[in-house]
Write a structure and sequence with these properties.
11 strands, 117 residues, globular, mainly beta, four-stranded antiparallel β-sheet
């Protein structure tokens, strides 16, 4: 069982930065890949970024490449999403998820990010 709790969301002006955190409970965190997803109002949830169990192979959706950075600290059971140069289209609820054998099987409750123009 893995429980995920996101934090760090908020209201920021365009061009600003936020760092999201996702704290995980459970002994299997270090063996799992982690991902960030987001859902804008009226839209489907979309993949944002992922990182494998060893902290390598970060992947990003094209729209955030060069602006967002995913990282993890296994000593703290936490995965981060550093978001710079934020745009209004980055607005949405951001979710972290844990992946095992190619399946995202545990999800957090989400944290709201609002970017004003």
């Amino acid at each position: 069982q893995v429980q995920l709790v996101e934090s760090g969301g908020g209201l920021v002006q365009a061009g600003g930065s936020l760092r999201l955190s996702c704290a995980a409970s459970g002994r299997t965190f270090s063996s799992r890949a982690m991902g960030w997803f987001r859902q804008a109002p009226g839209k489907d949830r979309e993949f944002v970024a992922s990182i494998n169990w060893s902290g390598g192979n970060p992947l990003y959706v094209d729209s955030v490449k060069g602006r967002f950075t995913i990282s993890r600290d296994d000593a703290k059971n936490t995965v981060y999403l550093q978001m710079n140069s934020l745009k209004p289209e980055d607005t949405g609820v951001y979710f972290c998820a844990s992946r095992r054998s190619g399946v995202y099987d545990y999800w957090g409750q989400g944290t709201q990010v609002t970017v004003s123009s």
